[in-house]
């Protein structure tokens, strides 16, 4: 009975978090609603990036570029007369296609070279947008974006977008969780442990990496598409290099290779970013202070996480919960008039719970 209750704790926690998430928009101010929506959008991006970093073992420092590509795709199509819903659907598709084409040569790089290659994507994106003003609005920005409509329903208020975003968050996390439990997911896990070992067991390493890179781009694309309709205005300043760094930090803080860690990392880093922005934009302070302050704090966070909890917050909580689970006493079952002692270290049960808890 006690073991069964322990096993149900993650389910109870998920339900509680879900109910709180649904209730929050009713009590938040308009400024806090924007933070709340951004947490949801970043959770989507980080869920895709977590699959890429935690399972394929690839680091991307250009995820904000794919986020921006999705936003510009949806905005340009909507401004030029396309249905906003069709434009939103086109955002992840176009981003995934571009990620696929970029990934074919890019994923031949390894380690630091790959990280700098993805950073180059971000820099190219920021250089191209100002030079294509006729299409993207250039440095001035793109305005006149129509409101998002789903059938006869117009999504206009912050609360409407809050619920839309979190519906997409749930769908994204479910898809990511199912992928990690599927056969391709097991192949990705093997790649994360050892590329050569995975290749020796028949895993098509290059194809899996490319598919994972494409999927992470699609996740960023759908988040960018929702973002542009929520804001109603688009500028390249919304996709700085530091945003890509923040995405990586969110993955590390939440837990590399964990799906639920995407939400935890996105929520914590977004709140910290807002606090630092408020502290750094006071009167008589230099405009560069928020960025400098953010970089210093992020570096400190990374050092603390990697030294104390290298598996991230969710990974640390999973290990703690497993220890409590294995240490919980189990009452011996009564069969007739006799008592049979059962070992509390059921290896099969323990293994099954551990794999489920990692996800």
Q: Tell me the major beta sheet.
A: 2 strands, antiparallel
Helix content: over 70%
What's the CATH first level?
A: Mainly Alpha
CATH architecture: Orthogonal Bundle
Poorly predicted regions: 336-359
Report the structural category.
mainly alpha
Intertermini distance: 24 Å
What's the gyration radius in Å? 22 Å
Helix count, DSSP H or I runs of 4 or more residues: 15
CATH topology: ABC transporter involved in vitamin B12 uptake, BtuC
Strand adjacency order, main sheet: 1-2
How many domains would you count in the coordinates?
1
What do you see in this structure?
It is globular, with a radius of gyration of 22 Å. It has helices at 2-23, 30-55, 63-79, 84-106, 111-128, 133-136, 158-181, 183-193, 195-200, 205-231, 241-254, 261-280, 289-308, 312-327, 347-358; strands at 148-150, 153-155, 334-335, 338-339. The chain has a single domain (2-358), classed as ABC transporter involved in vitamin B12 uptake, BtuC (Orthogonal Bundle), CATH 1.10.3470. The relative contact order is 0.15. It is mainly α. A hairpin with a 2-residue loop joins strand 1 (148-150) and strand 2 (153-155). Helices cover 72% and strands 3% of the residues. Helix 2 (30-55) packs parallel to helix 7 (158-181), helix 11 crosses helix 12 (261-280) and helix 11 (241-254) packs parallel to helix 14. It starts with a helix and ends with a helix. The strands form 2 sheets. The protein has a two-stranded antiparallel sheet with strand order 1-2. A two-stranded antiparallel ribbon has the order 3-4.
């Amino acid at each position: 009975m006690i073991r069964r209750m322990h096993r149900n704790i993650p389910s109870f926690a998920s339900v509680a978090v879900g109910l709180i998430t649904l209730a929050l928009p009713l009590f938040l101010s308009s400024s806090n609603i924007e933070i709340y929506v951004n947490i949801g959008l970043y959770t989507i991006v980080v869920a895709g990036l977590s699959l890429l970093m935690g399972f394929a073992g690839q680091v991307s420092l250009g995820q904000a570029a794919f986020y921006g590509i999705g936003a510009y795709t949806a905005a340009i199509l909507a401004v030029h007369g396309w249905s906003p819903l069709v434009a939103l659907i086109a955002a992840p598709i176009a981003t995934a296609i571009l990620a696929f084409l970029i990934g074919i040569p890019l994923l031949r790089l390894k380690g630091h070279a790959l990280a700098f290659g993805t950073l180059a994507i971000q820099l190219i994106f920021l250089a191209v947008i100002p030079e294509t003003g006729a299409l993207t609005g250039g440095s001035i920005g793109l305005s006149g974006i129509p409101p998002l409509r789903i059938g006869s329903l117009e999504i206009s208020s912050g609360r409407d977008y809050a619920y839309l975003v979190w519906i997409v968050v749930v769908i994204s996390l479910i898809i990511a969780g199912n992928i990690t439990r599927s056969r391709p997911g097991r192949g990705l896990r093997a790649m994360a442990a050892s590329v050569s070992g995975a290749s020796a067991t028949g895993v098509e390493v290059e194809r899996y990496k490319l598919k994972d890179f494409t999927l992470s781009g699609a996740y960023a694309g759908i988040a960018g598409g929702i973002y542009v309709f929520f804001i109603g205005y688009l500028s390249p300043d919304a996709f700085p290099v530091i945003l890509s760094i923040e995405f990586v930090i969110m993955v590390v803080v939440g837990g590399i290779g964990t799906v639920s860690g995407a939400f935890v990392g996105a929520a914590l880093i977004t709140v910290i970013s807002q606090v630092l922005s408020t502290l750094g934009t006071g009167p008589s302070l230099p405009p560069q202070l928020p960025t400098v302050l953010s970089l210093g704090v992020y570096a400190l966070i990374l050092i603390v996480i990697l030294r104390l909890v290298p598996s991230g917050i969710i990974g640390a909580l999973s290990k703690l919960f497993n220890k409590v689970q294995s240490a919980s006493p189990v009452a011996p079952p009564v069969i007739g008039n006799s008592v049979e002692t059962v070992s509390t270290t059921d290896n099969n049960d323990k293994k099954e719970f551990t794999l489920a808890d990692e996800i």
